[in-house]
Amino acid sequence: MESKKQKLYIILCGIFLTNAITAEIIGAKIFSLNETLGINIQSFSFLGMDMGFALSAGTLNWPVVFIISDVINEYFGKKGVKFISYLTAALITFSFLVIYLAVYVKPAAFWLDVNSTDSFGNAININEGFKLIFRQGMGIIIGSLSAFLIGQILDAFVFHKLRRFTNNRLIWLRATGSTVVSQLIDSFVVIFIAFYVFGNWSLGQVTQVGTNNYLYKFIVAIALTPLVYLAHFLIDKWLGKEKSDELIQEATSAD
Questions:
Q1: In terms of residue numbers, what domain contains 84?
Q2: Quick check: helix, strand or coil at residue 50?
Q3: pTM for the full model?
Q4: 199 in a structural domain
Q5: CA dihedral 185, 183, 93, 107 (to 10 degrees)
Q6: Is residue 203 a part of any domain in this protein?
Q7: DSSP annotation string for 1-40
Q8: Within-domain flag for 234
C-alpha cells in the first residue's frame, strides 16, 4: 500500500510540475483565441472594452495544474499540496535562471548561419529571436511566482473548507469551486504585476486580458470536471476502493 501511495504521489506531482513549469515558460506570449479558432467574437464587449479574446499562452494547460492540485488535495491533504507548490515554485525559479544563462551564452557562428532564414526565405537573426521568446522580464517572473503561490494556497484552503462543509460528498463542488475561486486571483495577479507594475500596460488592458484569462480558465475548469471523477475511478481501481477511501479519510483528518 505504501509503495502504491508513494508512486501515486510521484505521478501526480510529475504531471503537476510538468504543466506548471511549461505554462510559466510559454506564458509571456499573448495569443488571439478567436483568430486561432477562426471565429468572429470581436463584437463582444466587457466594461466598454473590445473583448477579442487575447489570452496568455500559459492558459492552455494551466487548468490541468489546478485539477491535479485538487486530486493531490483529495488524497494527500493540504500538506501534500503545499509541499509540491513550494517545490514547483523553487523549480520554476531554477528554470528561469537556466533560461537566462541560455540566453546570454554566446551563439556558435555555424548555428547562426544554418538558421539565417525562416521557412519563407526571409532573413532572421535566430539568436535575437531566441532572446525575445525566452528572455522574460523580472516583472513576469515575480508576477508568475506570486500568482502561482497565492493561487495554490487559496485553492487548497477553499478545497478544504468545501470538503468539510460537504462531509466528503459532492466531489465536483470542492474540485470546481476551489479552482474557480483560485483562478480568479491567479488570472489577474500575474497580469497586474508583470505588465502594470513592472510594464507599460494600462489598467484597462490588464482588466481585459485578466478577464479573458479567467473566462477561459473558468470554462475549461467546468469542462474538465469529469477528469476529476476519472482520476478517482482510476485511483480506486489501482489502490482498491477500501484503501482509496482510507487515504481520503487520512487526508481529511490531517487538514
A1: 2-29+55-105+139-254
A2: strand
A3: 0.79
A4: yes
A5: -110
A6: yes
A7: -HHHHHHHHHHHHHHHHHHHHHHHHHTT-EEEHHHHHT--
A8: yes
End-to-end CA distance of the chain, in Å? 21
Beta strand 54-56 with 30-32: parallel, antiparallel or unpaired? Answer: antiparallel
Q: Are strands 54-56 and 49-50 parallel, antiparallel or unpaired?
A: unpaired
Which regions of the chain does DSSP assign to beta strands (E)?
Answer: 30-32, 45-46, 49-50, 54-56
Q: What is the mean pLDDT of the chain?
A: 80
More confident position, 225 or 19: 19
Residues 7-12, mean pLDDT to the nearest whole number = 92
3-state secondary structure of 43: coil
Cell numbers for 205: 488592458
69-79: pLDDT as tens digits: 888 988 898 88
**Structurally, how many domains does the chain consist of?**
1
Angle at which helices 62-104 and 126-134 cross, to 10°: 140
39 Rama sector, left if φ>0, alpha if ψ -120 to 50, beta otherwise? beta
Which CATH number goes with the domain that contains 220?
1.10.1760
Residue 235: inside a domain: yes
